[in-house]
Amino acid sequence: MDMHENIDLSIALRKLHRLQLEEGDLGAAYWLSIADLLKASGEYRDRAIAAEKKLREIRLICG
After folding, report:
1. 37 lies in a domain?
2. Which domain holds residue 31?
């Protein structure tokens, strides 16, 4: 199991939200884009982990 598997992104997302509120329009748009990328990375990580688990199951079955 990878140590990155259990990282909670909510802390970073809250910080990015605070930065959005503190910045003007341009800065807020920037931090929103970063938050969207971070959310997407978490989703891709979850999909990759699920795919790895499925691959291990298939390898066990096919032996």
Report:
1. yes
2. 7-62
Q: How much is the pTM? A: 0.66
Digit-coded pLDDT (tens) for 36-46: 999 999 889 88
Given a contact cutoff of 8 angstroms between Cβ atoms, the answer to whether 4 and 45 are in contact is yes
Residue 46 lies in a domain: yes
Quick one: average pLDDT of 30-59? 94
Number of domains in the chain: 1
Asked if the structure places residue 2 within a domain, the reply is no
Amino acid at 11: I
Helix H, strand E, coil C: the string for the chain is: CCHHHHCCCHHHHHHHHHHHHHCCHHHHHHHHHHHHHHHHHHHHHHHHHHHHHHHHHHHHHHC
